Amino acid sequence: MSDQLKRQAALHALDEIRDGMIVGLGTGSTAAHFIRELGRVRLQVAGIPTSEESRRLAEETGIRLTSFEENPRVDVTVDGADEVSTQLDLLKGLGAALVREKIVAQASERVVIIVDESKLVDRLGQKNVIPIEVIPFAVPRVLLLLRELGGAARVRQRDGRSFVSDNGNSIVDWNHGMIDDPAKLEKQLKSLTGVVDSGIFANVAHCVIVAGSQGVRKLQRA
Ligand code: 5RP
């Protein structure tokens, strides 16, 4: 069911795309639906992937790829999210692509987020940890600082080892709990030396397409 809803949201996002656009390609299972559908409709676009996984998928589906060297500005980015608040702030990064996702989103004229309704929350942090990408040398220091701020922090593992991001860094998952002021906490985390960025995306989404059992709706930033 949830996968069908993710596909519905992805299909609606195609309405945002026109021939000639530079399109940011998000990461995760919902963004993967979008990439497959975009490949299928054969619009004349060029994509900038936000992860190696999305790059591979875009190549398989025949989407022409470009880079910031060729195109430093992106027309529209379509990406998923782990949580979307009532203010349309986002928590992202359970898929570990948060740094490239944020870089591509910041380069974009328009950011469209696609989710199924299970991702909607009153306040960020309600269901998920905050993923934080950290330079490996700084990990013990950042863990200490996060624990001092409050809440358990652990290095993400895969197959019994520290997970390594596409950028060669570690991911620290911080169990902060409810976030009162996402923009403030995003800035605070970014100020810790060794932190590359966090999965808090405050004031980034222009529009969120939500697919639910009652249909698809589009939430616009006020
Ligand atoms: C990856 C992300 C994803 O967009 C987020 O985890 C949502 O993934 P999914 O669509 O599989 O639920 O931020 O870094």
Describe the structure.
This protein is an alpha/beta fold. The chain has two domains: 2-119 and 202-220, Rossmann fold, CATH 3.40.50; 130-197, Alpha-Beta Plaits (2-Layer Sandwich), CATH 3.30.70.260. The chain has helices at residues 2-13, 29-41, 52-61, 98-106, 139-149, 182-190, and strands spanning 22-25, 46-49, 64-65, 74-79, 83-84, 90-91, 108-116, 130-134, 153-155, 157-158, 161-162, 170-174, 195-198, 200-201, 207-212, 215-220. The radius of gyration is 17 Å and the shape is globular. It starts with a helix and ends with a strand. The mean pLDDT is 97. The chain binds ribulose-5-phosphate.
Ordered list of secondary-structure elements with their pairings:
Blueprint: H1 2-13, E1 22-25, H2 29-41, E2 46-49, H3 52-61, E3 64-65, E4 74-79, E5 83-84, E6 90-91, H4 98-106, E7 108-116, E8 130-134, H5 139-149, E9 153-155, E10 157-158, E11 161-162, E12 170-174, H6 182-190, E13 195-198, E14 200-201, E15 207-212, E16 215-220
Parallel strand pairs: 1-2, 1-4, 2-3, 4-7, 7-15
Antiparallel strand pairs: 5-6, 6-14, 8-12, 8-13, 9-12, 10-11, 15-16
Helix pairs in contact: 1-2, 2-3
Residues 26-31, 79-82, 92-98, 101 line the site of ribulose-5-phosphate.
